[in-house]
Please model this.
Amino acid sequence: MPRIVPLDPRQASGETAEIFREIASAFGMVPNLFRTAAHHPPLLRANWNKVKAVMMEGGLSRKVKETIALLVSKDNGCDYCVAAHSAALRAIGLSPEDVAGIIEDPEKSDFTAKEKSLIGLARQANLAPRRIAEGWFQALRDLGVTDAEIVEALGVMELFAGFNRFLDSLQVDGDIRSR
Model:
């Protein structure tokens, strides 16, 4: 049971209602993450703007970003985000078997060496950022990874590591999707 009841979108007004409409347009619904953050509208606005900037812009593919979000969330034990990003990967065309394979062993999944290295870096940065070997960055550069791509991958990690803690602290219920 959630520690804070998510705001009902029908009760939202002003800027919160406007942000909810934008989120619903993007996702077909307003996820409980945003409905809960709406109790502090500046956080709702900041989180939504960051999701747009990190997940909907940039050079990395949506598949790579959703995979980073999924695996960081798995590593952090956030069931809400694991379910949400498993669904997001299925929504962009991956089969349930493909998603299960990513969760079980992303190294065996259909990613380039460059993508696998970025996904691995994001996971390592989430779990033990001070233990990232300098050689990892040289290996990334040898694969043609740019500084912008490194920062983007770590930005996805940072966004979801924070969301994982927020959602788990408040015991936010997963979203029920009727699709």
